[in-house]
Structures are given as C-alpha cells and as structure tokens.
Prior knowledge:
This protein is an alpha+beta fold. It has one domain: 2-Layer Sandwich (Alpha-D-Glucose-1,6-Bisphosphate, Chain A, domain 4). Helices cover 28% and strands 43% of the residues. The protein contains three helices and eight strands; from the N terminus they run ββααββββββα. The chain has helices at residues 14-22, 27-30, 106-128, and strands at 2-4, 8-10, 35-42, 45-50, 56-64, 68-73, 80-90, 93-102. Strands 1, 2, 3, 4, 5, 6, 7 and 8 form an eight-stranded antiparallel sheet that branches. A hairpin with a 3-residue loop joins strand 5 (56-64) and strand 6. It is globular.
Amino acid sequence: MYLESPVSSIDKPREEVYAFLTDLRNFERLMPENIQTFEVLDADTFRFALKGMPEIVLKRKEQVPVEKVVLGAASDKLPFTLTADIREPGPGRSEVTLSFEGAFNAMMAMMVKGPITSFLNTLSQNLGAL
C-alpha cells in the first residue's frame, strides 16, 4: 500500500527543514491533537500513541542530507516506511511530500488506509505551519 500527503510549502530553506526532521524530538510538534504518548527512545527511535490506536515505534532507516528522511517501523510485524522528500522550489522555500509505504494484506490495508491518510495529512499540515 502506498499513500502520499499533499505537498507542504514551508517558508524556510531546505537545510532548516531537513535539520528539523532529523531531530526526532520535533515530530511531537507535528503529531495530531489526539496524541496520548510521545517519547524519544534514542537518537534514531521514537514511540507514540494516538487515542484509540496501538503504540507505534519508528526508527530512522535512511537519510540523504537536505533531500530525504526515511523512518520505518521498528517491528517486523507490520513493515512500513514513512518518507519525507524535501525539495527547494526557490531560495528560502521548501516543499515536503510525506509518503507511506507498507506491506499489508488486502484486509489490513482496507482497515488502515483511512486512519493513515488522515495521519499523513495532519503531519503535512502541521509541517506547513512551521
């Protein structure tokens, strides 16, 4: 399953946006209002839980300076990645597209598509509001 957020336009240079996204503590600022827990476990891992949803642990899987940050599930039970692609359309401006890719069976994909789409859209909106 592959999902993509709308593009977030940010009035900051690409380097600043990349630095923001590589500091995992900042993801707490991007989370939806219904967040129940958020904890940075180490420099590459954080855990969060939204109301009514199971706890999720994300680990940094890849980063390409000023271009991309890839987080993935710390558990192999439900493998997925959350990728932030950062572009610079002009001086001092950035655009970020968030994408979610997961290996789910058809039934699971049907169940999680709505909540994950909503989650991606919220992250994208909050990122655009930086």
